[in-house]
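Fold it.
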Amino acid sequence: MVRTSIDGLLRLLILLLLLVMPGFAADYPAPQEGDFTAKDFKFKSGEMLAELRLHYATIGAARRDGRGQVRNAVLILHGTGGSGKQFLQPQFAGELFAPGQPLDAARFYIILPDNIGHGQSSKPSDGLHMRFPHYDYDDMVAAQHLLLTEGLGVQHVRLIFGTSMGCMHSLVWGETYPEFMDALMPMACQAVQIAGRNRFWRQAVMQAIRLDPGWNGGEYKEEPLGALRTAQYLLAIAGSAPLLWQGLYPTRQDADKLVDAQEARIKMLDANDLLYQVDASRNYNPEPGLEKIRAPLRWINSADDFINPPELVTPEHDVRRIAHGKFHLIEATDQTHGHGTHTWAVFWKQYLVGLLRETEGK
């Protein structure tokens, strides 16, 4: 039965209320924020940054074994355009960090970094604009490794969990530092180079920015809003969920209001930062080295994911090359969130519980 406009608006209101609720609850510790500075950080491109700032938040306390090694660290990695704070929403933190939940902050030391070019970490909009080093995913993972080992004194992690771009980072982690983690849980990605429709929409975002007369090679006085409007519309489509959106916006008027609502998001974007964020995936391709991943792995995608559609079936094939890897596809319903299902733990936390149980005592 078709939902009424009122039903859709009520569900939208509930969703908005969830998104604006405080980022942490009284039943787990408040996040502690900090900054780590990597000196003379050299990028794969040969470029260098004298001081690379990595912002992060931690929840819970590090626990060390008899040799002084941290044994309960969990690294959680965000997606393109996001930050560590996205994991403080109730649909994620409320399902995972509270007492008795899979990543109970009384037991685990949870680390939420803002990756290069994102959040409060070093990024082009700090002042270098297009002179900022052209980072890629390998650079981002290398910086995460420095944050853990030199900044936080963590030489091994219990789990690396990543969503979207963070999902791809977790696969890079598994190949680059195969002994560093007990377990890996990549959410919402593929292990092949970004091509086809996935590359098309990313390239379209970058072209919209580069070809906007107001961009001025990155030295704009005001944000090129035409380009950012196009980019935001593409980002919204990439993250959409057909069944959920049909329920939330069942009339023409409802859908038109959703387009208008993008204006607030557009004003939060910076053209140079967004260009770099999307371009960072340009040479991603862990497919040739999947056999290097040794840690038990649970790879989760969603059937209604525009960015990683199930018709491509590449994860089901690729996971067979990972010695202790398993793949699960979340069925699409009118409750799932497309690509964004990766942040709604209710749909997949049973797989996390199983992975943690399997790797207990490693």
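The longest strand covers residues 48-59.
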